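Submission sheet (multi-component)
Chains listed below:
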Amino acid sequence: MHKPAPRRVTIVDVARHAQVSTTAVSKVLRNAYGASPAMRAKVQQAIAELGYRPSAAARGLRGQTYTIGVMLPELRNLFFADILDGITAQLGDSDYQVLLAPGCNGEKAEARVIEAMIDRSMDGLVLIAPVSAKSRLNEIARAVPTVVVGRHGSSPAYDSVTDDDILGAALVVEHLAELGHRRIAHIEHHETDRVRLAEMPNAQRAYGYREAMIAHGLESEIDIASTTYTQAGGYLGAKQLLERPVRPTAIFAGADVVALGAMEAIAEAGLSVPGDISVAGYDNSALAAFGPISLTSVDQDGRQMGANAARLLVERIGQRDRRTAQVKLSPTLVVRRTTAAIETAG
Amino acid sequence: MHKPAPRRVTIVDVARHAQVSTTAVSKVLRNAYGASPAMRAKVQQAIAELGYRPSAAARGLRGQTYTIGVMLPELRNLFFADILDGITAQLGDSDYQVLLAPGCNGEKAEARVIEAMIDRSMDGLVLIAPVSAKSRLNEIARAVPTVVVGRHGSSPAYDSVTDDDILGAALVVEHLAELGHRRIAHIEHHETDRVRLAEMPNAQRAYGYREAMIAHGLESEIDIASTTYTQAGGYLGAKQLLERPVRPTAIFAGADVVALGAMEAIAEAGLSVPGDISVAGYDNSALAAFGPISLTSVDQDGRQMGANAARLLVERIGQRDRRTAQVKLSPTLVVRRTTAAIETAG
DNA sequence: AGTGATGTGGGTAACGTTTTCCAAATGTTT
DNA sequence: AAACATTTGGAAAACGTTACCCACATCACT
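Outcome: structure written.
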């Protein structure tokens, strides 16, 4: 009763069954040149009859594995899940299979995971918000077709897809300014690394905030708390801001969770949102959309980003030496109930 | 400037560099018998110097790939993410790399994904809440070591890890009964398939609910709405329950999202939670824990489940013909603010 | 009829490992 | 010293596929 699994059907079995050579079968499998329609049909039938499926391991040794690896720094982040949806949707009808590597928080784990994907001869890699050094990314991209998502700056080796974080920050500032706010503070993610300072979205958001403030003639109102993109960071940042001589009437948090933490601190200080202080977040996560919270937030179209990444990757797999491209998408502002005009009593 | 990636270092390079045979290197790599400490050291050094990493593709053709595939039906479900954490934590210091296949909702997509993982010669599979027919699961398990998570019932071919859903439901009923509730209703996920009716957690929860009601002498109070495990399903289910002749004083929703939908319907009916109706969910998701919601819910230790699954899988990879095991963990009830005693005014 | 282009099919050598031998060297017991 | 067991190392054959060739047949022009 414990039958030990029959040997797998191989290309040789198919060839024998169809009375052709293995080469012929291989050609049919890859839609390669040199197979007549008649033979194609014969082989297809043999494949169907035997239930043959090619071994990716064997394929990897010579050609492609039809596998695309995606690195996600954090599974619980719904924005990343959207990106993944976009990737799989775009690749849905192709022969490629997407595989995900989990648990890549930190530069070391990230390196391990990327190596693992390369070792498994994946045809292409999508790296979402990687933290590795840029030189390392270039190295990786030279070894295997790569698309980097969510990291600004261009590379000669890999394509990149980003959302315009500067614009996103500007949208928030503009929205708040239109509501009459002048003292608009920002809670940023503290960044030390030089390269990341230029390339990471958090840095771009802070930069965009500054520029937008200046553009609206609010240079003197710029007020920044530098913590981290976490709920605790938001709490701490808001606390700092509230203790300063001039209290902000609005806080632009660099991420939704940060906004949540900030709202906590605001409530603790006996102030109301948006009555006393307006709060805006970034990412338009499920949290922001959730009724009781209803947080004004910047929406990045994750699916769109993922779809673009997949498209670029497939293009590059097809033509490895083509010029690299940088796709930059535009975010939109989703206004909800945490932001209001400054004179609500007016 | 566009250097075309140097050829990968292979086992042959290492062998040459260490002045030994490729066999020797292979032995060292796999900690196999037949390599002296001296040679071991020599080879290790060569590997380090050359930065050699074995090709999983080539390995897959003969031996293991040191890859474990995990199938998740839904990325956004935080409970599944916990399971995954447990798996990776357990496998953290082993040589195994975990890869995830996304987008496996529905029997067809699930089949495709599982085949893809088998084609890639993965050493083992963890299937989380699979919906495939049992015979299919047995077939899969015969082809590759498999552990099924979150599906009751035992198989001669695969190990399984489940949480005791019957107990979970009992915990909820007991809690509500202790609070003085008698008319405790349940919103279940409608199940048609015969086998799944016995094996799926949702069915077990409904069964556990019935049994617990009977055990508490509340057989006549059993009241079930049969919808789906979605927010909409919860809304609809609660609506149905509220329209019935006898209104329940408590609703046990089979999942947290269901509870959320139910609360929506309750609010719409002008009733309060827990003032008029107590509500309990299942899964103890982040949603339940979230302050403003604060939903009483059953907590399954996902990490623990994942860790057990990984342990069983590695054991089975080591010894394919050992007896199958069924691990059943016990859930706990997390009481929050959506359940209260029936005489609050007492 | 002779030449070249094109279409069709297959033989065979990779690809980078592991595995199964086998031989030699060394150690241990009579 | 002979016989046997154990350790150490390597040669060579898989594993299943693709890529690179070459052979043959057919066809269209000179």
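Remark: Chain A has a mean pLDDT of 91.
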